[in-house]
Design a protein that fits this description.
418 residues, alpha/beta, Rossmann fold, Dehydroquinate synthase-like, alpha domain, six-stranded parallel sheet, two-stranded antiparallel sheet, 21 helices
Length: 418
């Protein structure tokens, strides 16, 4: 599948929309950084944003490509986890005066930070990828932590994506596994998207669905090669991650790629930050959380839907929510109150659509099948249970849904009293 052909847009007969993605070019190849010279041809003042690890990973390739430009640098310390919050945003914003191009060197956090600042400052940016670790390179959302809440903020797209195989093949193996795990998580995200189509009549596009599913199947074939840092496998994984990002841009939301499995992962990240507790790399958390959501679907598949919707005492629920999220709980409560989610009775539609919903759950690979897929890259669910424990995982199943304005199987699970 030719990425640059997809970027030209698709007039979709499946949903009668014209899908577009204004990224100008994507380079996933050996020595791809050389293209930065021509991309930056019309710019003079360039801000390079990286952390110590990602900056060192590119081994001076960016500076060599931009040797005739005025370069200013922001290099975040590599000693602690960089959080894409107000502090990081302010640091970048202080350096953008007279800048006409931002070049991010990194993956998840660096690219989200550059995307966010680029969008609000109207300064274009280019991302030089240092790891095939996540699918956000080509998506319109920036995963930020603002006022303590994990938010996917609508943001712009890069002028270009540069993924130099000579750089990304040497990424930490945990990040390569995270990219693989993030793709496997799409099984859950796609299932949630269809579920919301059934329950809420949400917009759905079969072309985007099928293309994302094709990327999962493509990625599964790369597994053994990824452990060997095989260049073709690394390239295939990166292409899959970028194409899934483009599908999010086509859908105008992260819906095809982010559902209940991402919400669980966000729960562990947010509670980890506010409680100073450890949490796994995003894509690895997503991968293990996909097993959990698959098990939830299996449990619901075997259960007869009740005639009444579960209603919990609000005061008791908020008390438990505050225990989980601490300072973030207020934002969760305000979000769900604004949406009116807890006041909506969905049991009628569940009963009307029970057969359709359960047929959908039948399509989802089982937890055991997901475990097998993850074992191909030596990811073991025991790591997840050892770090979080059953109580925290059960709290995530119950409260992760409150972080977002998105309907997933976590809501159905809650609504029927599980």
């Amino acid at each position: 599948m030719d990425i640059n052909e997809i970027l030209k847009g698709v007039k979709c007969s499946e949903c009668n929309r014209e899908h577009t993605c204004p990224i100008e070019s994507v380079y996933i190849e050996k020595n791809a950084t050389k293209h930065l010279k021509e991309i930056a041809n019309d710019y003079e003042e360039i801000l390079v944003v990286a952390d110590e690890n990602t900056y060192n990973a590119q081994e001076g390739r960016v500076e060599r490509a931009l040797d005739d430009k005025k370069i200013k640098k922001i290099i975040f310390s590599g000693e602690c986890v960089l959080i894409p919050d107000e502090t990081a945003i302010d640091r970048v914003n202080k350096e953008i005066k007279d800048i006409d191009l931002i070049v991010g060197i990194g993956s998840g956090v660096i690219q989200d930070l550059c995307k966010y600042v680029s969008y609000f400052s109207k300064i274009p940016y280019v991302i030089v990828a240092t790891a095939p670790s996540m699918d956000g390179y080509a998506s319109t959302g920036a995963a930020m932590i603002l006022k303590g809440m994990k938010e996917t903020v609508k943001a712009g797209l890069p002028k270009a994506i540069i993924a130099d195989i000579d750089i990304i093949k040497n990424a930490p193996m945990e990040m390569i596994k995270a990219g693989y795990g993030d793709i496997i998580g799409k099984y859950s995200a796609l299932n949630d998207w269809e579920l919301s189509r059934i329950v809420n009549d949400e917009y759905f596009c079969q072309y985007i669905y099928d293309t994302t599913l094709e990327m999962i199947e493509k990625t599964l074939k790369t597994a053994t090669g990824l452990l060997k840092r095989d260049e073709e496998s690394i390239k295939n994984l990166t292409e899959a991650l970028v194409i899934v990002g483009i599908m999010m841009s086509f859908a105008l939301s992260s819906r095809p790629a982010s559902g209940s499995e991402h919400h669980l992962s966000h729960y562990f990240e947010i509670t980890g930050i506010v409680k100073n507790e450890p949490y796994l790399a995003h894509g690895i958390d997503v991968a293990y959380s996909t097993i959990i959501t698959a098990d939830i679907r299996k449990k619901l598949l075997d259960k007869k839907f009740p005639l009444t919707q579960y209603k919990e005492d609000r005061e008791n629920y908020i008390k438990n929510l505050e225990k989980s999220y601490l300072s973030v709980a207020k934002g969760c409560i305000e979000l769900q109150d604004k949406l009116g989610t807890y006041n909506r009775d969905r049991v009628k539609i569940y009963l009307e659509k029970e057969k359709e919903i359960k047929a959908l759950f039948e399509k989802m690979p089982s937890g055991k099948e997901i475990e097998q897929m993850l074992s191909l890259v030596e990811l073991d669910i025991s790591e997840y249970y050892k770090l979080y424990g059953n109580e925290k995982i059960n709290d995530a199943i119950r409260y992760a849904k409150d972080l977002k304005d998105r309907y997933t199987v976590l809501w159905l699970n809650y609504d029927i009293g599980e």
